[in-house]
Amino acid sequence: MGYDIERFMGNVNEGLLCCICRDVLEDPLQAPCEHAFCASCIHGWLVHHNNCPEDRQQLAVGDLRPLHRYMRNDLGRLQIQCRNAGCGCTTVCSLESIDRHERDCDYKLMSCMNPGCPAQFDRRNLDSHLAVCEHRSRECPDGCGYTIISAEDLQHNCIAELRTELELLRAEMICRVEETKQEMESRLDSQRRHMVHKESILQGKVEELKSQMSRLMADVRALLASERQHRQDLDQADLEKRELMELLKGLQKEFRSKSNDGIQKLPNTRPLVCLESIKRKPREV
After folding, report:
1. Beta bridge partners of 122
2. Which of these CATH numbers, 3.30.160, 3.30.40, 2.60.40, 3.60.15, describes 109-155?
3. Is the pLDDT of residue 109 over 50?
4. pLDDT at 136 > cutoff 70
5. 279 vs 85, higher pLDDT
6. What distances in angstroms separate CA 177 from CA 89, 102, 188, one per listed residue?
7. What's the CATH code, domain 5-96?
């Protein structure tokens, strides 16, 4: 439904009236045939019809468009009275500002916010009513901290209320302690699983290092054995060399002694060749 035309000051252009409710347009929409309607009015019409209510041309919801801008401007400049004029409000403002004014209007009828209070009053009287409302909440005058909501609560037992409050606090504390305990146990289980996993990884690495160390020790022992064998071979070669040198010296002495005795013989080269081969053998070793 649109705005009641009786609330407007002066004449209202016919083009700014809804073709269905005949009041001033509210949330206006326009058909392709340029007839204008309130949004709620035309949507309600199209539930049961498929044409324009003015000229009966074919019309669907998807055909509706916003009002022309110049018409929206004319609509927004219309002067309208506050809906609370019957309660004493004398405000007259433009249509585009009326919603903002009516939200904060001092003459707007309100209900008391305290539970159980049926009173209704103008917004301007809100504070004065809340100050004397029998249903307002306030603290116990004896200082127990209990919030009194109604007049019957004035007879409450402070000790009982404090005991109830203490039990509630104790139950809440126990619940929080239990939640903290479960959370800590969950964290400890997670840390324990993590440490076990790390330990298994480290154990695997230690075993691998042990295996590598065993292979290295075997290689070292093989190298030491090979070195000992080489030393033995060298010692044997050195011994053979000394024996050959002694043999050579003996042959040289024998040759010189025979030469001195004047014995002339053709040299026999075969023993010398054998000797040379024997001398080369220690060097190769």
Report:
1. 109
2. 3.30.40
3. yes
4. no
5. 85
6. 59, 52, 16
7. 3.30.40.10
